[in-house]
From TrEMBL:
NADPH binds at K105. It catalyses: L-homoserine + NAD(+) = L-aspartate 4-semialdehyde + NADH + H(+). Pathway: Amino-acid biosynthesis; L-methionine biosynthesis via de novo pathway; L-homoserine from L-aspartate: step 3/3; Amino-acid biosynthesis; L-threonine biosynthesis; L-threonine from L-aspartate: step 3/5. Belongs to the homoserine dehydrogenase family. Its EC number is 1.1.1.3. The active site is at K205 (proton donor). The keyword Iron does not apply. This is Homoserine dehydrogenase.
Length: 428
């Protein structure tokens, strides 16, 4: 049995979780990897800081290059985050012939194409199961379990922070800022929480999922991204009354050999399983042309849940079952973004109006000018001044038509505020 030396870059939530899980499940991990694993070094910012894991047998250094240049270390775990220094360190580690495991979705989504090519050139592995949906083994499912399928759709709640916020707003009627503050305190949020609430983190993960699912290069810049900061508790309440739950969803769909990728708040039918993925949990729906719909659920963030994925990659490398060609690099498909204007969709509209007779008739008529019907509608008086919220669900139409209709409706003098438009996905 060999002794495999590991160096960790960053000993925070995920790094600390990795050390703890390696300790707690040592016997099983040795049996499954066939080798002894020894974390010999860790790079930290502050040597004196208290940590969530023991560090007695780990040599701590403030110079991460000492780890990637150390000849005795064969696998480097990059768990410090960021796309500057982390990239330089991973490149150096690969050039020194080391395998790398990372949880850094921002880095993989942005520089994954070149980093994977570099790893291939140096015949080393660069694995990142923890980067997408934390503890859920979703990349392995796509790469291995679903490899017989043509993937048609990937749709997921893949950011724990934004899902936590929406769930708190929905279940406890809390406001956005209050729920975000708690998500930060619970350690779910990214170093820059804008990444979570503006959908950037979801887009990073979606880029990785789409690349894996459709066999194309990583295309983070092609993803249309919209955050949840505009979602009010009123919209959540109205959506519920209309039979939907608002979720922050990343979707990658193949349409006539083009790829549609977007991240946005979305109304999902309350009867759909994804609408019941709550709090920090993640849920991913994958549709394959042989298997049909499959659904994956589990913790999308957290120290030991994320460590579970990091260590699974590490075990793959040690027992030699990791695959260099995880994106199908030998035969990448050239697939481009499709024009979203003509894509069929259902919409939720919410208007704030000064009440007077004939408003609903006007709205119906204007929508009808663009062949749009109202499938469900509700009204709520919101103050003593007789102002009303009107929330409605359309039939199947498209982006271009709804935007034109909304521009026309917006011109009526009784419309007080900008009309809110949210996509509805039936996920069929
Ligand atoms: N927290 C979570 O649940 C998840 C995190 N991730 C990803 O894992 C990575 C790490 O995240 P966390 O553990 O949550 O962050 P963290 O902030 O808890 O830990 C990062 C650690 O790296 C250290 N570090 C940063 N720069 C350093 C440097 N130059 N030299 C030495 N140490 C340095 C920091 O001091 C900190 O202790 C990020 O890429 C994150 O996006 C991925 C999945 C889930
Ligand atoms: N900030 C992320 C952490 C895991 O990827 C999230 O909230 O999902
Ligand atoms: Na994962």
């Amino acid at each position: 049995m060999l002794l495999v030396n590991i160096g960790i870059l960053g000993l925070g939530t995920v790094g600390g979780g990795v050390v703890n899980v390696l300790n707690k499940n040592q016997k099983q991990i040795i049996r499954r990897s066939g080798n002894n694993i020894n974390v010999t070094h860790a790079a930290v910012r502050d040597i004196t800081q208290t940590r969530i894991c023991p560090t007695k047998n780990i040599k701590l250094t403030q110079d991460p290059f000492q780890i990637v240049n150390n000849d005795d270390i064969s696998v480097v775990l990059e768990l410090m985050g960021g796309v500057g220094l982390a990239k330089n360190l991973i490149e150096q580690a690969i050039k020194n012939g080391k395998h790398v495991v990372t949880a850094n979705k921002a880095l993989i989504a942005t520089y994954g194409n070149e980093l994977l090519a570099l790893a291939k050139d140096y015949n080393t592995h660069l694995l990142f199961e923890a980067a997408v949906a934390g503890g859920i083994p979703i990349l392995k499912s796509l790469k291995d379990g679903l490899s017989a399928n043509q993937i048609e759709l990937v749709a997921g709640i893949i950011n724990g922070t934004s899902n936590f916020i929406l769930t708190e707003m929905h279940n406890k009627d809390r406001n956005f800022q209050d729920a975000l503050k708690e998500a930060k305190a619970l350690g779910y949020a990214e170093a820059n929480p804008t990444f979570d609430v503006e959908g950037i983190d979801t887009a990073h993960k979606l880029a990785i999922l789409a690349s894996m699912a459709f066999g194309c290069e990583l295309q983070f810049n092609q993803i249309t991204t919209e955050g949840i900061s505009n979602i009010s508790s009123e919209d959540i309440t109205y959506a519920t009354k209309l039979g939907y739950t608002i979720k922050h969803i990343g979707i990658a769909k193949k349409l006539n050999d083009k790829l549609q990728m977007h991240v946005r708040p979305t109304l999902v039918p309350t009867t759909h399983l994804l609408s019941n993925v709550n709090g920090v949990m993640n849920g991913i729906l994958i549709k394959g042309n042989a298997v049909g719909e499959t659904l994956y659920y589990g913790a999308g963030a957290g120290d030991e849940a994320t460590a579970s994925s990091v260590i699974a990659d590490l075990i793959d490398i040690i027992r030699n079952t990791a695959n260099h060609d995880i994106f199908g690099w030998k035969s990448l498909i050239n697939i481009t973004k499709c024009n979203t204007n003509s894509i069929a969709s259902i919409f939720y509209l919410r208007l704030l109006v000064t009440n007077k007779s004939g408003i609903v008739k006007d709205i119906k008529k204007t929508l009808a000018n663009y062949d749009i019907n109202i499938e469900a509608i509700l009204q709520k008086k919101i103050n003593q001044k007789n102002d009303l919220h009107i929330a409605l669900i359309t039939n199947l139409t498209n982006n271009s038509k709804i935007n034109k209709a909304v521009t026309d409706i917006q011109k009526y003098d009784y419309i007080i505020d900008e009309i809110k438009i949210i996509f509805v996905e039936t996920l069929n």
